[in-house]
Amino acid sequence: MASNSTANLEDVPSVDLMTELLRRMKCSSKPDKRLILIGPPGSGKGTQSPIIKDEYCLCHLATGDMLRAAVAAKTPLGIKAKEAMDQGQLVSDDLVVGIMDEAIKKPSCQKGFILDGFPRTVAQAQKLDEMLEKQGVKVDKVLNFAIDDAILEERITGRWIHPSSGRSYHTKYAPPKVPGIDDVTGEPLIQRKDDTAAVLKSRLEAFHKQTEPVIDYYSKKGIVANLHAEKPPKDVTAEVQKALS
User: Fold this and answer.
1) What whole-number distance in Å separates Cα of residue 203 and Cα of residue 159?
2) Which of 68, 82, 120, 167 is catalytic?
3) pLDDT in tens, 42-101
4) How far is CA 33 from CA 87, 225, 244, in A?
């Protein structure tokens, strides 16, 4: 394996190698951070995550991507996960935490990680804590992207799309000149199925039911930072930096 990766490095342009080395040197002085992001769809996690990742030199771990990578790499745990998926079963918490355990040992996760979409239950949170404890580390902060359902509903259900061009509008923030009509072609706008009030309502209900106990679990440890996720992205970024400093 080592010889293979060395050979690949020979083909990497010097400027890229230097950039990566400089990045690692700059990162070496950053404090370690192990973060969990929790927030409903549309709360802005996706906007903040790359900013936090770059600022603190963390790796971003999304459970779906990790599972796919482990399955593709045919690791022992990946093979087990594939068996479960092929049988249409859910991958067990132990397997997911095991795959995570492997993932956070990568060099890119040396300064810590951002976990997104996990843990979803208190049982998963406890397993994650046990696994991290064995490595002598712990979750440092849980960033809770708190936002009123009504605001989310307005953000999401106001979205309308012009299918053939991909142009998007928002009834409140970026309305078309004529309601329901594309400015350029005059063709009708549509709403994505996921963006309708009914779908959103059920997604939010499921989200709250699932994550509230997790937030309580971490609140008792005193590591939850509640962000005002309804604010503009720049303000949320400032809140994140304050929570992490």
Assistant:
1) 17
2) 120
3) 898 888 999 999 999 999 998 888 888 899 999 999 999 999 888 888 889 999 999 999
4) 37, 14, 8
- Euclidean distance between the first and the last CA atom of the chain, given in angstroms as a whole number: 39
| Catalytic site residue from 33, 34, 155, 159 | 159
Can 203 be counted among the known catalytic residues? yes
- Structure tokens, 57: 């030199």
- The per-residue pLDDT for range 191-208, each reduced to its tens digit, is 888 778 888 888 899 889
| Per annotation, catalytic residue among 53, 68, 203, 231 | 203
Task: For residues 154 and 147, give the distance between their C-alpha atoms in angstroms, rounded to a whole number.
Answer: 12
Query: Is 45 one of the catalytic residues?
Result: yes
Token pair, residue 23, equals 């990045």
Which of 45, 80, 127, 155 does the annotation list as catalytic?
Answer: 45
